[in-house]
Write a structure and sequence with these properties.
This protein is mainly alpha-helical and 361 residues long. Helices cover 70% and strands 3% of the residues. The radius of gyration is 26 Å and the shape is flat.
Length: 361
């Protein structure tokens, strides 16, 4: 097991290095850098002024050199002005030349400065990741039990009416994009003019104008059932169908195995067969899929967070992309890569423990 873990961790580091190089190259293309210069210094800059701004701010070096500076394996760029003032990457990040040091990259904990939010990238990401983490926690608490129940009930009796009904529901939920289901839920439950809310108000069942709020920004200060239900439900419905379908397929396969038939012939009740014999083996594949939902939730909540104005990680990624915030985009990519690779490792280890027959080669 230790050898397996060491190999996986080594592969994770190599994968993370390759992916960050790709993202760095994409975010530091000449057109992106030109847009950054004009955004920060003026949209009417000439090509010569753009070149001078890029050289003055350390973007004129070769890409691999800048990647090494950003990573922290190479010393940050430094230049001395005509008046003797020392400027550079580390000076800009740490405030003074005395505290700057030689290296100031990701490995040293210096994530850069966000041009969109005018704050340190680490500060911005910490707050946004906390908000998305809370959203992910509630989504998983709703999505996983609901998906497992639907999948197990559908797979217990393949071909029955229950199976067909639940399978149709699972397929429909996965086939409906978040921006469609979110808009439908807002129109149905969060509108004061259409949907259920006006009807419930006329009956006197609710005090406010709407049943749920279509804007979740207030959830950052105080999470309530009203302002957090729709974003959680929108994301959970979209992810639930896939997990339910995998669970149903796995349950169907297990229920046709020989040991299940033997248990039936011995007179074991159907409920005990499902709980004691079928369930653990049927959950091996869904466990892997559920673990893969975590990086999807982190990176795939962009639509839902923008739709419901919830300032989490996905909303921040969207803001960084449309405002060409290179440092924030790079840091977000590192976080996303780490989450994906760590959840993959946890998934592989858990898969081995759930199925001891799997050989680790």
């Amino acid at each position: 097991m230790l050898l397996f873990l060491f190999r996986r961790i080594g592969l994770m580091l190599v994968t993370a290095l390759c992916l960050t190089i790709i993202v760095f190259a994409l975010t530091n293309m000449p057109a992106k850098l030109e847009t950054l210069a004009k955004t920060q210094a003026g949209s009417r800059m000439t090509d010569a002024e753009v070149d001078r701004w890029l050289e003055r701010n350390g973007y004129a070096s070769p890409m691999l050199v800048r990647y090494g500076e950003w990573l922290g394996v190479l010393p940050g760029w430094v230049r001395t002005e005509d008046n003797g003032t020392v400027t550079g990457r580390c000076v800009a990040l740490r405030g003074t030349a005395e505290a700057a040091g030689e290296r100031c990259g990701i490995l040293q904990g210096d994530w850069g400065f966000s041009t969109r939010f005018r704050a340190g990238v680490a500060e911005v990401l910490t707050a946004r990741l906390g908000a998305t983490g809370l959203l992910m926690l509630w989504v998983l608490a709703v999505m996983v039990p609901m998906a497992l129940i639907v999948g197990i009930l559908a797979g217990m009796r393949e071909g029955s009416r229950t199976d067909r009904a639940l399978s149709t529901f699972a397929i429909a939920s996965t086939a409906t994009p978040e921006y469609v289901s979110g808009v439908l839920l807002i129109a149905l439950l969060a509108s004061s003019t259409v949907g259920l809310s006006p009807l419930l108000v006329s009956w006197g069942w609710i005090d406010g104008p709407v049943l749920f709020q279509g804007n979740a920004r207030s959830a950052l200060d105080d999470i309530t059932f009203s302002n957090f239900t729709l974003p959680v439900l929108t994301i959970a419905l979209y992810g639930m169908g896939y997990v339910a379908r995998i669970t149903r397929a796995s349950m169907t396969e297990v229920m046709t195995q020989q040991y299940i038939r033997t248990a039936r012939l011995k007179g074991v009740s159907f409920g005990k067969i499902v709980v004691r014999h079928a369930l653990r083996n049927a959950l091996i594949a869904p466990f892997t899929v559920i673990m893969l939902q975590i990086p999807w939730l982190l990176n795939g909540v962009v639509i839902s967070e923008v739709l419901f104005s919830y300032p989490g990680f996905g909303w921040t990624l969207y803001e960084a992309a449309i405002n060409n915030d290179i440092e924030l985009l790079l840091a977000s990519s590192v976080v996303a890569v780490v989450v994906v690779l760590v959840t993959q490792l946890i998934s592989d280890v858990g898969y081995v423990y759930l199925n001891p027959r799997i050989r680790i080669s």
